[in-house]
Design brief:
The protein is of the alpha/beta class. The chain has eleven helices and nine strands. The chain is 38% helix and 14% strand.
Length: 310
């Protein structure tokens, strides 16, 4: 049991059969997570470093939990308070870590392409936990897995991604993943937050959120990433909430039920209201739960272990 790639740098590098294998392996690990003893000794001899050069809560905790459920030895690294703050380069930092006999690196970095750069210089397997505005592959995998869990298949399903598409690595990875699995994708949001030529990726653009919701089976709502915006791209958050936020009235006006998703963190009252995030339509907490199983599957498959331990 292994993938066609040594690293998980982005969805773009994965084949459809890789994604299906990750999903099948995650199915097994989801069963493990339902047991009274939610742990297997599959990676008892494996050391993994969580190398986070950018702040994270959900993704980091999810990876740490996945590693511990697999019985791996984990080391957590944060750039703050490390030699990076003293001017040490990324390569030197990683080579020092690898000299301690590390097998795998989970990496988040603010620079797009950093995991690819690192993969050219080190032997350990690298998992991209988010790089700049480029990709966030495990988030896309858990999102697609969550849709599959609800609808049985992604082929022919209609998924709308709403929000800050311009600055979202989640959006790009989702587009790649959903397209590989046969889903139709629409992006929606203010024109200033929709990249030019995004249609070249095979997606539709709909600036009217209400029409986008009427079209889709699933709506994946993204937050406004103010920390990545270097100039004002809309007037106020209140105006954004009025014209592009997903609220209960919008959902009630639709002719059918749709699934609501959000990768977090949620800015309640901006891109999504509480009465939507906490409604029967929402599978946000399912996404969080599935994130651990998906990351367990990715780590396990990249480790090259042959037998799935029950």
């Amino acid at each position: 049991m292994s993938l066609s790639v040594k690293h998980l740098l982005g969805i773009k590098e994965l084949q459809q059969q890789d994604i299906e294998q990750i999903f099948q392996t995650a199915d097994n690990f989801k069963q493990v997570l339902q047991r009274s003893i939610r742990k297997v000794p599959a990676l008892r001899d494996t050391t993994i470093v969580n190398l986070f050069f950018e702040n994270s809560t959900r993704t980091r905790i999810s990876f740490e939990l996945a590693e511990k459920r697999l019985s791996a030895d984990t080391v957590n690294f944060s750039s703050s308070g490390s030699s990076v703050s003293k001017g040490e380069t990324l390569i030197d930092t990683v080579k020092n870590i690898l000299s301690m006999k590390v097998d795998m690196i989970v990496m988040r970095h603010s620079a797009s392409g950093a995991p690819w750069f690192l993969a050219k210089h080190v032997d350990a397997s690298i998992i991209n936990a988010g790089d700049g505005t480029n990709e966030h592959p495990t988030q896309a995998l858990l999102d697609a897995y969550s849709i599959r869990e609800q609808l049985g298949s992604l082929k022919g399903k209609r998924v709308t991604i709403i929000g800050d598409i311009m600055h979202s690595r989640v959006a790009l990875s989702n587009i790649f993943c959903l397209s590989k699995l046969g889903a139709e994708v629409t992006v929606s949001g203010p024109p200033t937050l929709i990249p030019k030529h995004i249609q070249d990726l095979g997606v539709r653009v709909e600036y009217d959120v209400k029409k986008a919701l009427e079209w889709c089976d699933v709506a994946n709502v993204l937050r406004i990433q103010l920390e990545r915006q270097h100039k004002p791209l809309f007037s106020t958050l209140r105006e954004y909430a009025i014209y592009y936020g997903v609220n209960k009235q919008m959902l009630e006006s639709l002719q059918r039920d749709i699934i609501i998703m959000h990768p977090g963190p949620i800015n309640r009252g901006v891109e999504i209201n509480s009465d939507v995030a906490d409604s029967k339509h929402s599978i946000i907490l399912n996404q969080v739960e599935n994130g651990v199983a998906i990351r367990m599957a990715v780590i396990y498959l990249l480790s090259g272990k042959r037998d799935l331990v029950d």
